[in-house]
Amino acid sequence: MGRKERYAYIIAVLLSNPNREDAAKELNMSKKTLEKYIANDEFRQMYRKSQDEILTHVTGYLSNNIGEMAKILFEIATNPDTPKPIKLNAIKIAFEYSIKFTETNNVIQRIETLERECGIDES
Fold it and tell me: What are the extents of the domains in the chain?
């Protein structure tokens, strides 16, 4: 197994375990050895790229299903059989995320406007 293949395998194990200790055990190496890999610039760059790809995939999945999730929250909040504490929590979640989405969207729009005004190319 070449260096990049070894890195890819270690990264896959890291990403599939809840913590570095468990990953090191699965890899049959000490945590100290694993930390040496993580300290390596080439490895760290591959690791970050893998994390970014996963985050992009998950974000896309959630974005594609946000309407269904909002529908479920609405059904929980409006169902007469839902206990009041659960209704209140559903309403709180809906409001909090609505505010976060609005703020994020506003920031993105402002950044895009600044980029256009400064002649910055997104690609």
Answer: 1-65, 79-123
Average pLDDT over residues 13-26: 96
For CA atoms 42, 48, 50, 56, the dihedral sign is negative
Burial class (CB in 10 A: 0-12, 13-18, 19+), 91: middle
CB 18 within 8 A of CB 53: no
Q: What is the dihedral of CA 12, 18, 24, 28, to 10 degrees?
A: -80
* pLDDT of 122: 62
Tell me how far apart the alpha carbons of residues 34 and 47 are, in angstroms, rounded to a whole number. 12
Residue 71 sits at the vertex; the CA angle it makes with 65 and 72, to the nearest 5 degrees, is 95
Report if pTM > 0.90: no
Q: Confidence class of residue 101 from pLDDT cuts 50, 70 and 90?
A: confident
Chain-centre distance for alpha carbon 120: 27
Cα atoms in the 13 Å half-sphere on the side-chain side of 4: 2
Tell me how far the alpha carbon of residue 102 is from its chain's centroid: 19
